[in-house]
Automatic annotation (TrEMBL):
The chain crosses the membrane at residues 46-65. It comes from the Eukaryota. This is Delta carbonic anhydrase. Keywords: Membrane, Transmembrane, Transmembrane helix. It holds the Pfam family CA_like.
Amino acid sequence: MGVNPQSPVLELDHAHDQHLLDTMCTAPASAFQPHDKIRDLRAANLFLSLTTIGLFIVTLSLLAMEKQSQLCLHSLLLDDDANVCNGTKLAFENQLCADLEVPAPQAGGNVTNGYIGALEVDVVPNTLPFYQSSMCPVNVHWHLGSEHYSYGQFDENGDGPHGNIPRPEWAARTLTEDKHEELQAGFRCHHYNAADPKFTTTYDWKHCKGMDIGETYEVHWPHSASGACGTVNQYQTPHYDGIFCKLDMDTFSTLAAQDIANAIGVQSQVFTVVNDESYFYPDMMRGMIVDEKMGMGQDVAFYTGSTTGDTRSNEVCSMYTPITWQVDRKCHLISASSFDKLCYDMKLQRDDMSNDLHPHGSRELVSDDLVANNQARKDLR
Ligand SMILES: *[C@@H]1O[C@H](CO)[C@@H](O)[C@H](O)[C@H]1NC(C)=O
Ligand SMILES: *[C@@H]1O[C@H](CO)[C@@H](O)[C@H](O)[C@H]1NC(C)=O
């Protein structure tokens, strides 16, 4: 566009621009004084040229951003295919333990210091912190009561608002009356005191479901080197999708038992939930709480076993084995708000983790003949 105000082309442009101005803006033409008209229009012309280009660029980038965000929203939230881990679980059905020719070491077992399982295995557990083996947490979930057994911490002498479970019959001890519950429960810790309000005062749960103050829960953080580590798809429910995200059956079948124990593992920590903010831990999402001063994650049992849950027992074995277990032997107090914050964080994940926002049932304590004999002890620092 020319800059000579005498140019007829420019006059034409002025008229054109005035028309544009009238249609685009609500400012009436009478706002311009007649004697200033040319100068004003010249200025308006220059202004408009610049703003038009500017507006054009802004519009384009807004459109691009909108398209981008629509694309992002679409691919992140609406498109099932974008969750690259969905359905990647490799399916291994539970088997009758007695039918197995090759023994399948199980979890959770006794993790009391000094305990050694009775199932002879060649594989050793991965005793490094999992992040040092390219593993990342791919899920977090918890069980009602403890699946593991740590004498003096979570065992038959613990208690809670719904009582405890007895020492198993196979461990040759007298049985007490079992409490009937909807979920198959595990052992409770020794902290519970019905006279102390922090174990009894109800909490207004906003995000977790089916939780009780004073109750014991065993939290599991499955880790995998084949997870979608560092991406929006890292955390998955079911956790098997997280574990096997980048592992297909062909590759899996080339792995030796030791490769599996090195690359797949679960961190486990047992808590009694209290209504007391002095036990608040803001981040239960990224793994076991390790705090030297509080004695958390300091006394850890290492062994190889399987996945757990109440579909497995001492008759029905999990075939997801041998994976490494790193189990904190101590039971810790934790605030209800810590769990509720965890559930909040879980709701923020790309995958729908709603199936893990409540406690799961516990497997019965694994009998000695199904527990690997490779227990190791080491500080996780
Ligand atoms: C994920 O996979 C399952 C089965 O593999 C399928 O039923 C489901 O529709 C898929 N999508 C989501 C978002 O879960
Ligand atoms: C667990 O192991 C400890 C140490 O070996 C032992 O004293 C205890 O009786 C075991 N508990 C059960 C239930 O087997």
